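Model it.
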Amino acid sequence: MRRQSDRAAVGEIRTGEAGHQALARLTVHTRGIGLVDITAAVASALEQAGAGDGLVTVFVRHTSCSLAIQENASPEVRDDLVGALDRLAPRDAGWRHDLEGPDDMPAHVKAMLTGVSVAVPVIGGRMALGVWQAIFLIEHRDRPHSREIVVHFIGGRA
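Modeled.
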């Protein structure tokens, strides 16, 4: 029995100038450990920048939180992700760096595992996220924090 191979097909191709750039800074106030959906704020920055087709990069300027593109429909997914990260970097793992508390070093490891930036194609001024996808800031520390995010768009104008 012959197995049919997976196939990829090229869809619409759009071309244009990539001479437009825009930077925005977002401040996100967290309540402690958990995921904060920042998709609407990034979309607003793109709209205000007059973004057309291009690429948006979202970068968080901290070492104890991170960014991820993840499911936006079920809150249980967010809870399970926090639990999975806790199992991967538990507080009681004998960390040497503990000057800022027992949640700090595990937060650094979690940020390294999940990453501090995401890149999303932009088509017609809108992020090309899937229907169930959103951009989340993941707070890995117990206390509330103010987190700074830099949004950089490069591409064409709307």
